[in-house]
Specification:
The complex is a heterodimer of chains A (about 280) and B (about 280).
Chain A (H helix, E strand, L loop, with lengths): L1 H13 L7 H9 L6 H6 L6 E4 L5 E4 L4 E2 L2 E3 L6 E2 L10 H22 L3 E8 L5 E14 L2 E16 L4 E19 L3 E18 L7 H37 L7 H19 L1
Antiparallel strand pairs in A: 1-2, 3-4, 4-5, 6-7, 7-8, 8-9, 9-10
Helix pairs in contact in A: 4-5
Chain B lengths: L2 H21 L6 H12 L7 H13 L3 E3 L4 E3 L10 E3 L4 E6 L4 E7 L6 H21 L4 E11 L2 E14 L4 E11 L3 E12 L4 E13 L7 H38 L12 H13 L1
Antiparallel strand pairs in B: 1-2, 3-4, 4-5, 6-7, 7-8, 8-9, 9-10
The chains are: A alpha+beta (about 280), B alpha+beta (about 280).
Chain lengths: ~280, ~280
């Protein structure tokens, strides 16, 4: 199908461009395929925006709490700017949402020591439900970093087999930026990165479905914690470090190229003698 | 507005987007991006003038290395003319294929030149080639030296670049530095880029500028060239050393400040305890 191919080409291109410019890059590509723009926007991960209600309480704005140009606050359950005929979670789901936000706030405090978190739930047609657990953290002007930001987007799809088995499927994306505006040794230095992981787990519900809501929150929370920790570790130890490796194999520090050649020469000799 | 005019405006819109996308593409991936842009726009191929112009701009900005049978040239904004590039040293104009990075043809041309400045240029080229061989990735690296003016008032332009392109393993990198000097002043711009996209997408963009007082003695070309290239290598070494320090401190000054690997307690969150406690608090 033509639209699938064009969207795939857009996603291919977006993967080659800086991830924190995602909004701008996606908009540029969407202008080439205006009929499929909405579809494209739903497939991208970009840094999360923050909105405010009338009392100044903040909430995260995302695709998962958006209706048209308005966003629903996890605090008040209202849309800003206000709209009629908007989409709301069912009463039962809203109750779960309030509890989840309270617990996730504690998770955010433990791991992020700051930042903003929001959980949004929505009903699904197959009888299950889904939820997005979001975190936006900024780091400003500390230890030489001019600014930095972290956005994590955890989307969990929850299904039951109708009896007592619950299946949780999580897709987590992290979008990260570190920016140094002026450093006396390296000038202007900017690294941006995004990484995604999926995981699926199934559990037996507690006997008699006792405290089912708390059960969901625990299971979802544990998954979020595991996958976020994994992605953080990957970005730190593998991905960011890889950019250094790439630079250092493009230009070698003084003496190193010679050293490598010598070592390769010795290895060659060894192979010849004993290989 | 008739059909022809409508098409022109649409094309202008495409041109703007194409230019922007290709400009921000890491060096080594432009051909792939252009292929995808053609698929998105439809009814257009990589040889369309819009695509070729975007590719040309991209190559010139990244000092693309174009190879011939026994010669090579770096394409830059500086030596770029309408249809060809100027090779000052060999008194040639060169036509290139930007897609294949190959030299298509060369023609002899008469260019203004000054014997003393030529001597310095040749000495600089020798020193730069030595510098490249000592510290840069052999696979794709090159340098250029050009000058303008005469012995009483001259400006020399130098370009140094090396690229790492490893598409099967999903990574690319560029080191691009451009320099100019007069009798008393050396100025430089450095761009360092890296891109790794196996599963994820991580990009480094690093920019720095340099300025240093020098004294060029045209009568001692060999010595002058050594000093200038030595100054350049000293500044680039310092920059790279700074990068090393920055990367070493990144886990502490950046990642930890962003998200702890574990809570300060040293253990993972106790969901059971927290869920019961916090939800009970809600009811109050």
């Amino acid at each position: 199908m033509e639209s699938k191919e064009k969207i795939l080409s857009c996603l291919n291109i977006l993967k080659r461009l800086p991830p924190t410019q995602m909004q701008k890059n996606a908009a540029a590509l969407a202008s080439l395929i205006p009929d499929y723009a909405e579809e494209l926007y739903q497939k991208i991960d970009k840094p999360l925006d923050i909105g405010q209600d009338e009392k100044g309480n903040q909430f995260i704005q995302s695709e998962f709490n958006r209706d048209g140009d308005s966003f629903r606050s996890h605090v008040t359950n209202q849309y800003y700017p206000p709209i009629d005929d908007a989409v709301y979670p069912s009463e039962a789901l809203r109750k779960l949402e309030i509890k989840a936000n309270a617990v996730f706030d504690e998770y955010k405090r433990l791991y992020y020591e700051g930042g903003l978190s929001s959980c949004y739930f929505w009903d699904k047609e197959d009888g299950g439900f889904a939820t997005a657990w979001l975190i936006r953290k900024n780091v400003e002007k500390s230890k030489g970093i001019e600014d930095g930001s972290w956005s994590s987007i955890n989307v969990i799809d929850i299904k039951t087999d109708g009896k007592s088995k619950w299946t949780y499927k999580i897709t987590t994306s992290v979008v990260l930026e570190m920016n140094i505006v002026q450093n006396q040794d390296v000038g202007k230095f900017n690294i941006t990165g995004t990484l995604t992981k999926q995981k699926e787990e199934s559990y037996e519900a507690p006997a008699g479905n006792k405290d089912l809501e708390l059960f969901h929150i625990m299971k979802i929370g544990t998954l979020v914690e595991d996958v976020e920790s994994y992605l953080r570790s990957q970005l730190d130890s593998v991905y960011f470090g890889k950019t250094k490796d790439i630079v250092f194999q493009t230009r070698f520090i003084e003496g190193e190229k010679n050293f490598i050649k010598q070592r390769q020469g010795l290895a060659g000799e060894f192979k010849q003698k004993y290989g | 507005m008739n059909q022809g005019e409508e098409e022109v405006t649409e094309l202008q819109q495409y041109e703007k987007v194409v230019k922007y996308i290709v400009k921000n593409t890491p060096f080594g991936q432009a051909n792939l991006v252009i292929k995808d842009l053609c698929k998105i726009i439809g009814n257009i191929n990589p040889q369309h003038p819009i695509m070729l112009q975007a590719l040309r701009d991209h190559n010139e900005e990244h000092l693309a290395l174009i190879k011939g049978q026994n010669t090579q040239i770096l394409t830059s904004v500086l030596n770029s003319q309408e249809d060809f590039y100027v090779d000052q040293k060999n008194n040639e104009t060169i036509q290139v294929d930007h897609e294949k990075l190959e030299i298509i043809s060369r023609s002899q041309v008469e260019l203004p030149s000054d014997p003393e400045l030529n001597t310095l240029r040749d000495a600089l080229e020798q020193q730069l080639n030595l510098y490249l061989s000592q510290q840069f990735n052999d696979k794709v690296c090159g340098a250029y030296v050009m000058y303008q003016g005469d012995v009483s008032d001259f400006t020399f332009y130098l370009g140094i670049t090396a690229k790492t392109i490893n598409l099967p393993n999903f990574f690319c990198g560029s080191w691009i530095s451009t320099w100019e000097f007069t009798k008393t002043q050396l100025k430089g711009d450095l761009r360092v880029q890296a891109h790794y996209y196996e599963d994820g997408n991580v990009q480094l963009k690093n920019v720095n500028t340099f300025s240093e007082g020098i004294n060029v003695d045209l009568s001692a070309a060999s010595e002058s060239a050594k000093q200038i290239v030595h100054t350049i290598s000293k500044l680039e070494n310092k920059h790279q050393s700074g990068m090393d320090n920055l990367y070493n401190s990144m886990p502490d000054i950046f990642f930890k400040a962003m998200r702890r690997p574990l809570p300060i307690t040293g253990t993972k969150m106790n969901w059971n305890e927290n869920v019961h406690k916090l939800v009970a608090n809600l009811k109050q």
